[in-house]
Amino acid sequence: MPRKDIYHETVKRALLKGDWTITHDPFSFKVGQKDLFADLGAERLISADKGWRQIIVEVKSFVGRSEVNDLENAVGQYVLYQQALKEAQINRDLYLAVTQPTFNQIFQIPLGGT
Questions:
Q1: How many structural domains are present in the chain?
Q2: In a domain? residue 112
Q3: Domain coverage including residue 69
Q4: pLDDT of 21-31, one tens digit each?
Q5: What is the number of alpha carbons within 13 Å of residue 104 lying toward its C-beta?
Q6: Could you tell me the pTM of the whole model?
Q7: Rounded to whole angstroms, how far apart are CA atoms 107 and 102?
Q8: Which position among 11, 39, 74, 75 has the lowest Cβ density within 10 Å, counted as fewest Cβ atoms?
Q9: pLDDT by residue (tens digit) across 29-64?
Q10: Is residue 113 part of a domain?
């Protein structure tokens, strides 16, 4: 099982504060013979009519030597998990949790173009 990201507990506390129930820590699932581990599984009652909303959260810290390498790894893992969840027929929304500075400095900057 992979080690927890440095922001794991911070994200977990934020989810709990937002009235989410942590259902899995980590969220493990299998695709073929491969075991995969996302950081957290959570659920929250939307309404009596709509039922429960279930999510999976992958936490990334972006503290490596290269922001681009961290981005490649995070996006690659996200895409891999998205496809694996689909193949495993796990019906949960997948989220990538990053800090606000990481979001502003890395995810808001276009890569490539003119």
A1: 1
A2: no
A3: 8-107
A4: 999 999 999 88
A5: 3
A6: 0.87
A7: 7
A8: 75
A9: 988 899 999 999 999 998 777 788 999 999 999 998
A10: no
CB 59 within 8 A of CB 7: yes
Q: Residue 61, exposed/middle/buried by CB under 10 A (0-12, 13-18, 19+)?
A: middle
Q: What's the confidence (pLDDT) of residue 31?
A: 85
List the beta strands (DSSP E) in the chain. 21-24, 27-31, 34-38, 40-47, 51-59, 93-97
| CATH code for the domain in which residue 62 is found | 3.40.1350.10
38 beta partners: 27
Residue 1 lies in a domain: no
Tokens 């599984």 — which residue?
41
